[in-house]
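Researcher: Next sequence.
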Amino acid sequence: MNIENYRIPDLNDPCCIAARVTAVHRDRFEIVTRRGPGHAQMKRGLRADEMPTVGDLIRVEYNPAGDSQAVEILPRRTLFARQDTWHGERQLVAANVDLAFIVTSLNADFNPRRLERYLALARESGAQPAFLLTKRDLADDLAAEIAVAQVLNLAPDCPALAVSVRTGQGMDALRALLTPGTIAVLLGSSGVGKSSLVNALMGAEVMDTGEIRADDDKGRHTTVHRQMLELACGALLIDTPGMRELAMWDSVDGVEDVFAEVAEAAQRCRFRDCTHTHEPGCAVRAGLESGALDPGRVENYLKLHDEADRTAALARKRERSKEISKFSREMKKSGKIRK
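Model: Next structure:
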């Protein structure tokens, strides 16, 4: 282990030190400090979206004999989050990421509309998105070229690599992106080959892998929790469980960035609250009728924008509730209101 690759700051605090969170379990965190690897526990009573996630830097009261006590989360540079559709809350995926690899496979599960969803959340996170098209050995040259062109059309400024862990094709170009100290995350659906990529980059079988289902080309979950691994090149790689669903969370800016041509047309609509379905003077509908806008992208824009708007409102409501609760506690503590 090279501690320098974890980019852990010196807090100049006699009571606490900084630590990088490398894995999250139900009741504790795996961490790395300047003194080496260890474990930490967070104080109880916090909501899931208030807990550290993989990649976070935290301040801990260090205990070399056992679990350290996590005190607070240090400011994040970037944060990838989605909506937990089961509980309707924000779910943190990874923090302080430099490169967000959106992983998809070159088989029947390839879906540009789904990639737009991942891209919107990656843009919102603040990390640099990149596309990895895996299982290049299963596609002929023409199919691979078309797929790469499709993802580059979604985001011309993002790297797009077709790779195969079996033949090694494209792997050198991937390794060139993973410079020492870079923190990268692999994001994608189950069965697209994330764990196989990790094993190839690590040069060892450190992650379980599973075969895709023959009936629909969809995969099974093999990664069960988020984990940060140190590659031989000095980069840090976060593998994540396959995501069957990727719901938006407060990602309006990310959506508008991905669908810039639709968002620009929406700005020219006659009404500011135009739904782009029936109103007169709708520039989006005019763009569809003239052929200037792609119907599939407009449909996905409207869908993702609606999700992002709803979760943004929910996020504002919860932040307001937290502020009221904090104010109430402070007033009770000061004795200005009765307990």
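Model: The first strand starts at residue 17 and ends at 24. Helices lie at 112-125, 141-154, 171-177, 194-202, 252-258, 260-266, 283-290, 295-334.
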